[in-house]
Amino acid sequence: MSETEGSSDRRPRTTSSGHLEGSAASAPPLTPGEDRRWATLAHFGGVVGAVPSLIIYLVFRDRGPFTAQESKEALNFTLPLTCLLFVSYILALIPAIGWIFGIALVVIWVTMTLAGLVAGIQCNKGRPYRYRLNLRLIN
Asked: Cα angle at 107 between 101 and 73, to 5 degrees?
């Protein structure tokens, strides 16, 4: 058997939705408890920024409707604030005015953390949560 004969069967195939076969799209759907748990963790992850909600959104969006909705909501809330945190951190290094951005860092982080905790508690009860001020960047 030559190299080309068996290699054509091993190429990844995509589904009509553009996902690779064998990826999370073919994974079993989440149970209602798991769906609620991952949605809650997406909001609680706001303590460290947008990365946890982004990972949960990318991995579980096709497996649970509540997780897809809530991780997208958490990502839309934490992504702009995480960007502001990075900008404030860099500007806090400026000697003359850095203290202002240092205070802004703390205020942004506390806001993101408290809002994420409130949202996570609501999701854990099975209630969808909408942040009061949220940019809907990801639809």
From this structure: 115
- DSSP characters over 1-33: --HHHHHGGGS--B-TTSPBTTSGGGSPPPPHH
For residues 138 and 122, give the distance between their C-alpha atoms in angstroms, rounded to a whole number.
Answer: 21
CA–CA separation, 73 vs 138, rounded Å?
A: 8
Residue found by looking up tokens 């951190």 in the block? 89
Mention every residue, 6+ apart, whose C-beta is less than 8 A from residue 36: 66, 123, 124, 126
C-alpha 77/C-alpha 72 separation (Å) is: 9
- Using one digit for the tens of pLDDT, what is the confidence trace for 57-97? 999 999 999 999 999 999 999 999 999 999 999 999 999 99
Written as six digits, the tokens of 89 are 């951190």
Q: How far apart are CA 2 and CA 41, in angstroms?
A: 49
CA distance 11 to 34: 32
